[in-house]
TrEMBL record:
Coiled coil ranges: none
Family matches, as Gene3D superfamilies: 3.30.230.80, 3.40.50.11260, Heat shock protein 90, C-terminal domain (1.20.120.790), Histidine kinase-like ATPase, C-terminal domain (3.30.565.10)
One GO MF term: ATP-dependent protein folding chaperone
Entry protein name: Chaperone protein HtpG
Phylogenetic placement of the source organism: Bacteria, Pseudomonadati, Bacteroidota, Chitinophagia, Chitinophagales
InterPro entries xref list: HATPase_C_sf (IPR036890), Heat_shock_protein_90_CS (IPR019805), HSP90_C (IPR037196), Hsp90_fam (IPR001404), Hsp90_N (IPR020575), Ribosomal_Su5_D2-typ_SF (IPR020568)
CDD domains to which the protein is assigned, alphabetical: HATPase_Hsp90-like
Key words, A-Z: ATP-binding, Chaperone, Cytoplasm, Nucleotide-binding, Stress response
Keyword Repeat included in the entry's annotation: no
Family classification: Belongs to the heat shock protein 90 family.
């Protein structure tokens, strides 16, 4: 029997490991099972080259919980260790001291690449035992034990079967790891796709021959795309997201140069409710779950995708949970952007009807990408589409320019894209524009306010105007003038009649000679101010937040050429005239959703009163 001290230059290494090595103690189980998988895979490799003799047997990993004895055991049938190897790997922690350890790994949470994974067991254990038998049959079986201090025991024991069994005596602070559901949850989270079958049992349980492993040892991202069917991809999506709708389509990542990367990214359906969930992409390293925070690897605009990425080349510090800044990460980010852009372009070119059907969901990804990634913007300019509110026809930017070349260019030669954010509320403005032959497109998603602002800077000679931003005559500024049928005195009188105070609004009134078919009063909200308020509504800061506090600006354009004013200006009853004028203004405000609360109630009461007066007048005339 050998006794001694684990060779480190400080006796404080174990308390430091316990306290600082991991931010989340549940990681210990992943580390120990990862070691068991490595031992199993090594045995397969040695057997394939003839170094490991004899039958491999059932290469599985067993996790057994004994709540009564307060132990958790992990058993594999891999390469095992000799006494010399145990001494080398378990008794030498290669750190010069606590200060250097903390200095070098102060941001660390997981060990993996630094050979410390085994020691994570001491975060939850008062004592750890190891029973192991090397694949070298002549080597004796070995027992090792340590209570978390630098002192250990190491001696030979009666012959065991090949492999290693680690027994953790769970400490008082870690009793949660004696709950079966807790252990199952950890296994399902971290070990779901490990390549060696993993079985979980509780002490005293009868072993069921039909028991299935908790993991899928051969997930589809490890296969070639040519080996897979549509059904395979959809079934795997359901395995990842049991309650998710069938995805729109998917991209199979499979590259081995200049870095290794495999995985599958799914485009989910996104409903108009915008219940969007990020962090649905999981990062794996050789089928071991690492994290679902992949913002450094996946471009920001693709964080809404679902799926899995697996790469052994993504550098991890001692904490696998946090990615280090590294050229490979940037390369992978660029590769994924290109892959997604190529896929969208391919679908658009080969099956445009299908692409258009999916646009309600795809548009969010595409617009977000065009805002945040100039490389993607270059590619997306070819397949970005806009839907005409009139006949639901889709236009690319170039197609829209061609279709509107004659009618929708302003005095500066810019193409004016007319859009609606609410086809129902803005219907009157839409109809007025369509009567002029204008094409009005939908821009009704949460991201469109930011998209419009960005594209005006990135696209040449393009200007966006919301369909209700001005009277139809002014939507496309061509410096054309319409003559008013009113005299100068009548115009001034009408201007004066409409100059009343509107609570909660900053209103400006102008009298113009418009088409007689245009409504008597048109309420519009200046494009700039409305955009600022829209941006504030989705969380814009700085000056945007300042504009959010300001009252709504509205322009009341009085159509002097509308026939109603010929009679109204001659009305002798001043009170009646005032009420009619106010009603015309309120109708215009109502079309913009700016008539609310007490103002709306007054509008209703006033109209009832006018109708009653009209009925009395009619009755009197008949008498």
């Amino acid at each position: 029997m050998q006794k001694g001290q684990i060779r480190v230059q400080t006796e404080n290494i174990f308390p430091i490991i316990k306290k600082f090595l991991y931010s989340d103690h549940e990681i210990f189980l992943r580390e120990l099972i990862s070691n068991a998988v490595d031992a199993t895979q090594k045995l397969k490799t040695l057997a394939s080259i003839g170094e490991a003799k004899g039958e491999l047997g059932d290469l599985r990993i067993d996790v057994e919980l004994d709540a009564k004895e307060k132990t958790l055991s992990i058993t594999d049938h891999g390469v095992g260790m000799t006494k010399e190897e145990v001494d080398k790997y378990l008794n030498q922690v290669a750190f010069s001291g606590a200060e250097e350890f903390l200095s070098k790994y102060k941001d660390a949470n997981i060990i993996g690449h630094f050979g410390l994974g085994f020691y994570s067991a001491f975060m939850v254990s008062s004592r750890v035992e190891v029973l192991t038998q090397s694949y070298h049959e002549e080597a004796p079986s070995v027992y090792w034990s340590c209570d978390g201090s630098p002192e250990f025991e190491l001696y030979e024991i009666e012959k065991r079967s090949r492999g290693t069994k680690i027994i953790l005596h769970i400490n008082e602070d870690s009793q949660e790891f004696l709950e079966a559901n807790r252990i199952k949850g950890i296994l399902e989270k971290f070990c779901r796709f490990l390549p060696v079958p993993i079985y979980f049992t509780e002490a005293g349980e009868k072993l069921d021959e039909e028991q299935k492993p908790i993991n899928n040892t051969n997930p589809i991202w490890t296969k070639k795309p040519s080996e897979l069917t549509t059904e395979d991809y959809q079934n795997f999506y359901r395995e990842l997201y049991p309650f998710g709708e069938t995805p729109l389509f998917w991209i199979h990542l499979n590259v081995d140069y200049p870095f290794n990367l495999t995985g599958i990214l799914y485009f989910p359906k996104i409903k108009q409710s915008y219940e969007i969930q990020k962090d649905k992409i999981q990062l794996y390293s050789n089928q071991v779950f690492v994290t679902d925070e992949v913002k450094d690897i996946v471009p920001e605009f693709l964080m809404l995708l679902h799926g899995i990425i697996d790469s052994p080349d993504i550098p991890l510090n001692v904490s696998r949970s946090y990615l280090q800044g590294d050229p490979n990460v940037r390369k992978i980010n660029t590769y994924i952007t290109k892959k997604v852009g190529d896929k969208l372009d391919e679908i658009f070119r080969n099956d445009r009807p299908s692409f258009e059907e999916k646009w309600e969901s795809l548009g969010l990804f595409v617009k977000y990408g065009m805002i945040t990634d100039d490389k993607f913007l270059e590619k997306a300019n070819k397949f970005f589409i806009m839907q005409d509110i009139k006949d639901n026809k889709f236009y690319t930017l170039e197609e829209y320019k061609m279709a509107t070349e004659t009618l929708q260019k302003n005095k500066e030669g810019k193409h004016v894209i007319l859009y609606t954010t609410d086809p129902v509320q803005q219907d009157a403005y839409i109809q007025a524009s369509q009567q002029r032959g204008y094409i009005v497109v939908k821009m009704e998603t949460l991201i469109d306010a930011a998209f419009i602002n960005n594209m005006e800077m990135k696209w040449e000679n393009v200007h966006f105007v919301r369909v209700d931003a001005d009277i139809v005559d002014n939507l496309i500024d061509k410096q054309e003038k319409n003559e008013s049928v009113l005299s100068k005195e009548e115009t001034e009188q009408l201007q004066q009649l409409f100059s009343f105070e509107l609570p909660q609004l900053h209103a400006t009134v102008e009298v113009k000679g418009l088409s007689p078919d245009t409504p008597p009063v048109v309420a519009t909200r200046p494009e700039f101010m409305r955009r600022m308020k829209d941006m504030a509504g989705i969380g814009g800061g700085g000056m945007t937040a300042f504009y959010a506090q300001m009252p709504d600006e509205v322009m009341l354009t009085v159509n002097g050429n509308h026939p109603i004013y010929q009679a109204l200006l001659k009305e002798s009853d001043a009170t009646k005239k005032e009420k009619q004028i106010r009603t015309l203004a309120d109708l215009a405000l109502l079309s913009q959703g700016l008539l609310k609360g007490n103002d709306l109630t007054n509008f209703i009461n006033r109209n009832v009163e006018l109708m009653q007066q009209s009925d009395k007048s009619t009755a009197g005339a008949e008498a």
